[in-house]
Design goal:
This protein starts with 28 loop residues before the first strand and ends in a 9-residue tail after the last strand. It contains 2 helices and 5 strands, in the order ββααβββ. The longest helix is centred in the middle third of the chain and has 23 residues. By secondary structure, the chain is α+β, with helices and mostly antiparallel strands. Strands 1, 2, 3, 4 and 5 form a 5-stranded antiparallel sheet that branches. It is 22% helix and 29% strand.
Length: 129
């Protein structure tokens, strides 16, 4: 079955005129790491994204930070058995330039945004005396 508009032109993906195509979403690469160190959980999330997005797109910054916070809460539930906002430390994001082989900034103007959180593992375990 083919989807056709009133003029008999296919409306399937890739067949729409340029003026009807949606803007592509922000493309980025992401790497997440969780490591248990002594009685704390270290959680890191790094992503490579275009510098313009980080500077000019406040909506992307907000959604990305909120998403990281939600992941931190899930990890706290899994590793610590609970969430205590006063004990979880979420560091401000660090932004680092991506350099090419000659040590020059990436021609695509990408940066690495690094999020870090430290979660104590004794959050949900309170002892009674």
């Amino acid at each position: 079955m083919t989807l056709l508009n009133k003029k008999g032109v296919s409306k399937l993906k890739g067949h729409t005129p340029n003026n009807e195509k949606k803007n592509s979403s922000t493309i980025f690469e992401e790497l997440s790491t969780i490591k248990l160190i002594d009685n704390k959980v270290l959680m890191q999330q790094s992503m490579a994204v275009n510098q313009d997005v980080v500077i000019n797109n406040m909506n992307w910054r907000s959604k990305t930070y909120d998403s990281f916070q939600k992941k931190v809460h899930l990890v706290a539930e899994d590793y610590a058995g609970g969430i205590d906002e006063t004990e979880i430390v979420i560091e401000p994001p660090m932004i680092m330039d991506v350099l090419d082989e000659e040590g020059e900034p990436d021609p695509d103007c990408k940066v690495i945004v690094n999020f870090t959180a430290i979660i104590p593992t004794n959050i949900g375990r309170k002892e009674l005396h």
